[in-house]
Every structure is written in C-alpha cells, then in structure tokens.
Design brief:
By secondary structure, this protein is of the alpha+beta class. It has helices at about 90-100, 105-130, 135-150, 155-160, 165-185, 195-215, 225-250, 255-275, 280-335; strands at about 5-10, 20-25, 25-30, 35-40, 55-60, 65-75, 80, 85-90. Helix content is about 65%, strand content about 15%.
Length: about 325
Amino acid sequence: DQYTWSMTRLLPATQGDTVCFVSIGYQIEASLDNKVIYRFGDNLRGKDVWGVQTHFIPLPDGGENRTLSLQFSTDIPNSVALSDYILMDQEVPLIQALLQSNSIKILLPLTYSSIGIFLLLLTIQRKLIKTLDLPLLIVSLMSIAMGGRILANNAFIAYFTGPIIAYWVINALNMAIPLLILLLLAADPSYRDRRVLLALSALQAVSIAAWVLVNLSSGNAVTIPINGILYFLLSAAVVIILVREARAGRKHLETAVSLGALLAAVLINAHLYFRYGVQNTMDFTTTILTLPILILISGKVIHQTARKEEEMALENSALRREGDLMLKNYIRIEYY
C-alpha cells in the first residue's frame, strides 16, 4: 500500500528563492498553485529514495499568496525520515546554513577518519620495515569506516554526493563495522573463543556479499531479512566473550569492554536506520560516544605494538651480545 500526505504553505513574494529539506524513503512532488515544479523518485523502492537526499527546489519568481504544496509518498511509513526543518532562502545562504548546522557533525567524523589514516600509514610503515600488524590495520579500517559512514549520512555531504552514494556507503558500512570489530577480537590469539568469532565473521561477510550482489542485480533498494538475526548473534557472542573474560580476569578486559561499547553503539545506530530511518540525533550521539572509545582502542593497539617491538629489540640485543661473546670465545680458542 502507498501512503501519501502533504503540506501546504502560502508563500511571500519570492525572487531567486529555494526550498530546502532532507528526506529518506519518500517519493516527493512539489507543486506551486497546482503546477508541478519538482519531482523526486520514480520508484518508491529505488536506491535514490532510500538514500539521504538533500532537496533544493528552486521557486519561480512571483508575488505573494501563491500556494506551495509538498506531497510525500511511501509504502513503508515506519522506515522513513524527514528533516525537522523546511527552509526557504537563496541557494548560497542555504548551503552556508547547512554547513554551519552540520559543522560539528562533519568535524568529528573527519577526526575519526584522520585517526584511521594515521594508523593505516603507521601500519604500512611497519609492514615495510617488519611484518604486518593485523590489529593495527583493522583498527585503522574501523576508524575510517566509522568516519565515512557518519559523513555519508550528513545532510551537507549528501548535497554533493547524492542519495545513491549515501545509500551504498551507509548500508555497507553499517554491516562492515561489526565485521571489523569481530575480526579485531579474533586477531588476539589469547582469546579462547577465536573460532566462534571467526565463524561469526564469516557469516557476516557472507551476509554483506549477498546484500551487495542482490542490490547490484536489482534497481530497487533491498535489505537482507537475516540482518537482524546476525546482529543479535554478534551482540550475544561479544557479550558472552566479555563475561568469560571478566570471570577469567584477563588483562585485556578494558579493551574488550571498549569494543563491546563500540559495537553496542553501532548496533543501536544500525537498528534505528534499518527499522525506523532515524538519522540525525543518533548519529551525533554515536559520534560523541564512540570517539573516546576509538582513541582508547587506538592507543592500546599502538602501545601493544610498541611493546612488542621493544621486546623484539631486547631479544635482538641479547642475541647480538650472545653472538659477540661466542665470536670472542671462538677467537680465543683459535688463538690458543
């Protein structure tokens, strides 16, 4: 069934003005005095409709008391979202207002991505010098993914990227971030439940691949029904592991708790997006909540990596001293 509702407003005199708002899941038609001036979304299930779309609707110049009508249509009324504001001004001031209202929401995910890029460069440097540091690589990818996911959902960024890119990035990263968290936990050889984590990681990877293939083969936006079950399994597995680690008194419990909090925030955000289409408040809350967690994880991984390098350096130094001593003894034996 298709659900349609509309809103109307009498306009003041306009000259070069534009109407601006953000939507997800709505097919939209704008009319001025019963004459259609704007249409968005040919298909109620299209990827453009289910991405983040920042609408800019140019208004024809004219006098006051003209009637602007906005008609919103959807077939999934519980999963749509509409911005709290519908603004009218000239285009440049509207873009400036979007940038100003979203500046903090842009700055924080850029911080995420910057941390991730720094860690990625550090990973590459360590790979060139020695061996690949897998936990550091996963943390860097997780940081970049979180930053990219929040940026793609930003109204100002969506104005430039368009809704289809936002659809792909947001949904793909919603599923990829829990996978990275599981892989980060599984990369620690001291965890007793690594096989369970790897199995869940494989299951999540298969789900992501299935979602990509289904969406590539279809012009419509398609969700995988098993996603909710997978998220429940992932959450349950991490909770069980955290409880077992707490009982065992493991030294890396703090890192595990941080990862659990991060996973919980991601799951809540993904649930709200998939189920209700809630976009604005939760993203900001998630950004604030997970930033110190991400910094903590990054610091711990870097600290552990540095400690490993220090231990390796001490071992190498001991081996060199032992080698020097053996050489001296050999020279003395040869001398005698």
